[in-house]
Predict the structure of Adenylate kinase.
Amino acid sequence: MRLILLGPPGAGKGTQAARIEQRYGIRQLSTGDMLRAAVAAGTPVGQKAKDIMARGELVPDEVVVQIISERLDQPDCAKGFILDGFPRTVAQAEALEELLKAKGIRLDAVVELEVDGSILIERIEKRARESAGGPRADDNAEALKKRLEVYHAQTAPLIAFYRDRGLLRTVDGMASMDDVTNQIVSVLEAA
Ligand SMILES: Nc1ncnc2c1ncn2[C@@H]1O[C@H](COP(=O)(O)OP(=O)(O)O)[C@@H](O)[C@H]1O
């Protein structure tokens, strides 16, 4: 099973990806988590990404494409994977298409979590208050506003991109967490 989870910040991609990982024994690949790990470790990629991420902007396409390309070659992705937070631009989606073609891999589905803009800010502020390790560098009002703008300008066009390819499946991200999981599972069983 190979899928992409698509949706705005705060839509619940991380939560659902972790559940799908458990259920199907496939790997969750979160570019946000990978970049945060690189920042924490102070690697060259992390040094490059740190300030960009804190502002809520996107790190350059070639950086994340390279990270994902290498990650997909790891043996733990052989059974499948869930891309969470990637692709985030049409250029990334095109690069992914090329990459998968070269690796001889086909996507099964792109699952869009549809959530009203009005509740996203509320959800992320709640996450910032409740996160054990303290809030993320980009979970503040200014970066959040920027992340939502970036989503609408750069990532939302991927909905049409994948609809055109017959891969898009939309689920109601406003339902309860369990209900959203069930919807995703039905979509995957049908794919
Ligand atoms: N595919 C990507 N392309 C560019 N930047 C990315 C990508 N994935 C993550 N990032 C960077 O990491 C930040 C956090 O991403 P993520 O953890 O997916 O957060 P969220 O979905 O909650 O906004 C993004 O705002 C961006 O700066």
